[in-house]
């Protein structure tokens, strides 16, 4: 990490549920919480807790100098709703095989 920029990853202790429309897209008690300087906390859910059958891979890819290249998936009416880092940088290797949604319900 560069000076002044930090990323921490810890095992979450909250239930995370993602609903789009009336469809539950993901539900997990095993989410990782990623905290990054200048960003809200993000919940990364294990792939097996995500209904990948309800998502469509997107052509979108973004690059983060701290995490690597992200791949995205879309739900009907919600483009690029979820992302993951298939080959994350070593400092954030824990998020491999995990997916992150915008605006999950965390309880």
From TrEMBL:
Gene3D superfamilies: Domain of unknown function (DUF427) (2.170.150.40). Residues 16-103 form the DUF427 domain. Pfam families: NTP_transf_9. InterPro entries: DUF427 (IPR007361), DUF427_sf (IPR038694). PANTHER family: CONSERVED PROTEIN, DUF427 DOMAIN PROTEIN (AFU_ORTHOLOGUE AFUA_3G02220). This is DUF427 domain-containing protein.
């Amino acid at each position: 990490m560069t000076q002044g920029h930090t990323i921490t990853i810890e095992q979450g202790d909250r239930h995370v549920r993602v609903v789009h429309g009336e469809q539950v897209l993901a539900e997990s008690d095993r989410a990782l919480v990623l905290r990054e300087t200048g960003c809200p906390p993000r919940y990364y859910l294990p792939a097996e807790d995500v209904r990948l059958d309800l998502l469509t891979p997107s052509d979108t890819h973004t690059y983060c100098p701290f995490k690597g290249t992200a791949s995205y998936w879309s739900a009907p009416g919600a483009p690029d709703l979820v992302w993951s880092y298939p080959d994350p940088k070593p400092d954030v290797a824990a998020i491999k095989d995990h997916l992150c949604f915008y605006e999950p319900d965390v309880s």
